[in-house]
């Protein structure tokens, strides 16, 4: 059971049906598989603390493919603002720790986010990959578009974690178009 659900059971068990408590609406989505990541639910969990959880992708696109997600239900990278930069930095730090444990060389590390509507699951997830990709079709799902002029990122449905951090730090938001 997720922490958010446990909390809601403990504190809101008497809530009349039809009006779910605010805490549950904002932090937990009962229809979201990534809100219920656990070993019991069949995930290959590598690491977790009270805020983040990391697990192996069930259909790896590359030699190693891990997901790092916040336990809190956040829809996507589009929703993030400057105040979320620290969370992204924590996710990246954890990702590097996990890749360190796998002895993955720096240049083959890649990490980033899909940008809606080009995402699969509506719960923020950092793709953490050790290249190479298994196929060209898989590679095409994770294109990196370098910035130009004042843009940090070009046109792309994928944003590298470091690009996302720079964009948010600059008080902008992440989108498919150059930003
Ligand atoms: Zn979720
Ligand atoms: Zn994705």
Describe the model.
- This protein is an alpha+beta fold and 179 residues long.
- The protein folds into two domains: 1-30, no CATH class; 38-169, HIT family, subunit A (2-Layer Sandwich).
- 26% of the residues lie in helices and 20% in strands.
- Strands 1-2-3-5-4-6 form a six-stranded antiparallel beta sheet.
- The termini are far apart.
- The relative contact order is 0.15.
- The structure holds zinc ion (2 copies).
Features:
179 residues, alpha+beta, HIT family, subunit A, 2 domains, six-stranded antiparallel β-sheet, 6 strands, 26% helix, globular, binds zinc ion
Q: What ligands are attached or bound here?
A: zinc ion
* Radius of gyration using CA atoms only: 17 Å
The percent range for strand residues is: 15-25%
Number of domains: 2
Strand line-up in the sheet with most strands: 1-2-3-5-4-6
Tally of separate helices: 5
Strand-pairing-aware structural class = alpha+beta
Q: Looking at this structure, what is the CATH superfamily of the largest domain? A: HIT-like
Distance between the termini: 38 Å
Note the overall shape: globular
Order of helices and strands: HHEEEHEEHEH
Structure summary, number of beta strands: 6
What's the CATH C level of the largest domain? Alpha Beta
Return the CATH architecture of the largest domain: 2-Layer Sandwich
| Main pleated sheet | 6 strands, antiparallel
Low-confidence runs: 6-24
């Amino acid at each position: 059971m997720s922490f958010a659900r446990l909390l809601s059971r403990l504190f809101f068990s008497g809530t009349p049906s039809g009006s779910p408590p605010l805490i549950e609406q904002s932090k937990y989505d009962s229809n979201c598989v990534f809100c219920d990541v656990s070993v019991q639910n069949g995930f290959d969990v590598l690491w977790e603390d009270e805020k983040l959880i990391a697990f192996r992708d069930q259909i790896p696109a590359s030699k190693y493919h891990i997901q790092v997600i916040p336990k809190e239900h956040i829809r996507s990278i589009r929703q993030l603002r400057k105040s979320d930069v620290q969370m992204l930095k924590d996710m990246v730090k954890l990702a590097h720790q996990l890749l360190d444990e796998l002895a993955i060389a720096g240049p083959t590390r890649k990490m980033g986010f899909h940008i809606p509507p080009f995402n699969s699951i509506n719960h923020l997830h950092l793709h953490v990959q050790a290249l190479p990709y298994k196929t060209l079709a898989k590679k095409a799902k994770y294109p990196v578009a370098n910035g130009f002029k004042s843009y940090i990122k070009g046109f792309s449905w994928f944003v590298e974690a470091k690009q996302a951090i720079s964009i948010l730090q600059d008080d902008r938001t992440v989108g498919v178009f150059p930003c």
